[in-house]
Design a protein that fits this description.
The protein is an alpha/beta fold. The chain has ten helices and 13 strands. The chain has a five-stranded mixed sheet with strand order 1-7-6-4-5, sandwiched between helices. A four-stranded mixed sheet has the order 8-13-12-11, sandwiched between helices. The protein has a two-stranded antiparallel sheet with strand order 2-3. Helix 7 runs parallel beside helix 8. It binds oxa(dethia)-CoA (UT7). Oxa(dethia)-CoA binds next to helix 2, helix 6, helix 7 and strand 12. The site of oxa(dethia)-CoA has 21 residues, from helix 2, helix 6, helix 7 and strand 12.
Amino acid sequence: MMKRALLTGVGGYLPERVVSNAELSASLDTSDEWIRERTGIAQRHVAGAHETAAFMATAAARAALRMAGAAAGDVDAIILATSTPDQAFPATALRVQAMLGVTRGFGFDLSAACCGFIYALSVADGMIRVGQAEGVLVIGSEVYSRILDWQDRGTCVLFGDGAGAVFLQAAGPAVEPAARGVLSTHLHAQGTLGDILYVDGAVGQRDRPGTLVMNGREVFRHAVTRLAEAVDEALVANGLQRRDVDWLVPHQANLRIIDAMGRKLGLPAERVVVTVDRHANTSAASVPLALAEAVADGRIRRGDLVLMEALGGGLTWGSALVRM
Ligand code: UT7
């Protein structure tokens, strides 16, 4: 009988430095009004030199383990979603493993851009279901401030840095829909759309570390369509109705996309977790950071049905349905 992955802890980390729209508009041809109206973003956190993907991931992971009442010895695997790793290798996940004092098991990084956390959660869930691991840290950690072209107003105002983590633990076999844990994940990708959102370089390309390039309008168009499909797919697969969903925890790219998904589910605004106003788009960290905030402030409680969705460069997109 397959095991169920329970989400027993969640935590986040945001860099100390906050950069407002006003601060950006002092050196860039943009305005607080434009950024707020088109995206809902008012500010973002920007990492200092010491706040690397590994540093922030470790802080978020510690918070998740603390909430779960778990210790380093309970961690079998660390799956870290990032597009901005500290180094090409070792995997940032293994830097985190070392900093946490985990001395066994395994870990690796996963690259799926803004959908990275959903992908990592899906891989972890599969490993727990088949008995390959019992305790898995799933982390999204990003320092997009290091890959942004700070002269490009079309992209640099949209992103922020941060990390979010969840701890998944194996529970006994449970097949009834009301049971807690990860109920389903659905992953999608379309590589032919790789050129509408990408980084034009990498450590594998000599002298080209790369900066982020995006055709915002095209990504927006695909996001609204694909995410709406993903929401339906998750509900149909679980035999659930829209009204069964207690919380939408969406990827935080643009408030207009988030609102569209909330309306699609017929959820009142207060049932949709929004952090984009304060965090901007933290890519793979955005969903676990939003989840961490809503759990910490008592909105999301044990037994609640939470639908997460994200879309990012690749294109990659998908959903995760979790009963807390
Ligand atoms: O996380 C991965 C997924 N990413 C997303 O989902 C992002 C999806 N896309 C978006 O959120 C939106 O497309 C953006 C927020 C990126 C852009 O909003 P938009 O309403 O699609 O604006 P636009 O790109 O069509 O640009 C409208 C105008 C342009 O000027 P013209 O050509 O109409 O004169 C831009 O040059 O706004 C201008 N513009 C700006 N103006 C002031 C673009 N960026 C800025 C800026 N400040 N920062």
